[in-house]
Amino acid sequence: MRYSEKGNFLRVIRWDGPSHVCSPPPVRSVSYDGAWPADCRPSPDAKQWRDLWGVTWTDLDGEVFPTGPAVGSIDELERLRPPDPHDPARMAKLHQALAAIDRDACFVSVNHPYFLYEKGFNLLGAEEFLVSFVADPPAAHRLLDTIVDFELGIAAEYVKLRPDHVNLSDDYGMQDRLAVSPAMWREFFKPRLRRVIDFYRGALGPETVVSLHSCGHVMPILEDLIEIGVNILNPVQSTANDLREMRRITSRRLVLCGGIDGQRVLPLGTPEDVRREVLAKMDLLWESGGYLPMAEKLLAVPDANRRAMEQAIRDWGREHVEGC
Questions:
Q1: Which of 195, 207, 225, 280 has the highest Cβ tally under 10 A?
Q2: What is the pTM of this model?
Q3: What residue segments make up the domains of the chain, in order of their start?
């Protein structure tokens, strides 16, 4: 029996015998107005602008980067003016977007980009933000409380839309370690992640799917993510994590999404290299369905390699899942 795409996605999440590989997942994402830097760009030609929080963003050859903090130091937090998450303008465009989504066929996902670590990084600048954890922990906690209060306000507006899926995006990892120590992550970030996840589960029900996007090395906090209720982790960078050990730790407890090498193989390899990479990752990570095969990233990936990836996923699925 072949399940519907939505039903099959749920079986992947629940490790409950999906009938086919879920690629791409039947998820349609929506975000509040101002969630992304480009939302505040005054015109397509603008090279520099400020976002809702007052962070300066700069377009450098088509890539957008935060180049000016909203406040100059942790000592100036009283100058920070958080936006109003309940402003009707925040959600005005979402109703039109939702009207175009077939909710019987697709999961509706709501986004929280630049969630805690990244937003703090943007608001204060990298050095000032990271130093604050040691130099002035109470102020660092106040800043993160300001951020999470905003995110909880956004969540309160999102739950009115009755989403199926919540995506929290915060890059905690570097190439070979967390950006902060595991102890600091558990002190400053874990409780606030838990607050938001608990809010959604309380408002929408325990079956609400929660995913976390975090690039980089996240091995030290896998058990923590499982503990606080994350269902899906992406993009599980293969060059930054031991994916075999990651699969062992997360087996039947956390769905892995991504893992197809987007740093070396996809942008630089041949279509045959890509095929070998996909088949190896499917063999390693599928384990009865707790895997959503995707590229870690698709920046600078040739079309031929993208097509080779998609074909290899289909071929593996026909042989190992649909043919069983």
A1: 225
A2: 0.96
A3: 5-36+71-322
